[in-house]
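User: Fold this; tokens only.

Assistant: Input:
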Amino acid sequence: MNRKFMVLSMTLLLLLIISMTIAIMVGSVSVTPLYVWKVILSKIPIIQSSIEQDWSRSQEIIIWQIRAPRVLLAAIVGAGLAIAGAAIQALVRNSIAEPYILGISSGATVGATAVIILGAFSFLGVYALSVSAFLGSLTAMGLVFFLSHVGGRVSVFRLLLSGMAVSFILSAISNFILMLSKQEGGMKAVMFWMLGSLAGAKWSILVIPAVIFIVVFALLWLNYRSLNLLLLGEEAAVTLGVNLQQFRIQLILLVSLLTGVLVAVSGSIGFVGLIIPHIVRLIVGSNHKYVIPISALLGGIFLVWADAIARILIAPEEMPIGIITAFCGGPFFIWLLRRNNYSFGEGD
């Protein structure tokens, strides 16, 4: 498996680089891959002097200031949502769990809406959106787990129903806050969170989601054995040395932090955390040593292409990326519900 994993990882990494290059190329103004990489490499201090600057100022602005940060953000958000979905599915041992379905995204959206419309956490400046979205997602996740506990254990059936109920309630709260706004700009900004978009991507906002993603990815990957043991059941996991209560809290905090930060910069983008982990498990099995990194790569590729399609499908207008992911995730979700023989271990 190690050799297969390395080959698959390198292949997906190459596909991700190619996908990002193509995504930067396409748009209302087309640019060649040669110029894309010339502009990017010219920003690296060590080699910039060896790059012949034969592109126009407008091409540099389009490539470096507009498209490159957006495509990179798409890769980060896609990868982050994918590993968040994989972690949640292992945590609750349910194949249809993901941040969107369990209400985490809706909680983050409420937090972001409160900042945009009501000015909450304004004293935190540029960090207000991320902090508020994180607190919203953490509150939603905690509420869902509280409602789904039966006899000290998490009931899968109650978990899904609680997630749906909490999601509906939080969506209603977001809509209520939206109705309070008399500013057209504020209403448009809130619609950004509800439909999902990467149009606001800038280099300045990439640092926080990139750092949080790297930290959460590393912690999940380092704890892949504990994630694997969770799939065996609560009693088996405890018997084999997992501090279940502590590990659950850690996972909840990590997933809420990651989801909240990603929603803060991209809006509510659903189904990525549902689709990608399943596809990965069909390829590499249920070992999270492989599921986590492959999910990150495949999630990044998926959202880069979803964003590219959203930009060009109804050009010159832009379609919210959440619509694209819903078109992909909805049928996949239905197929999953009808496929009774699916298991976490399939593909081993």
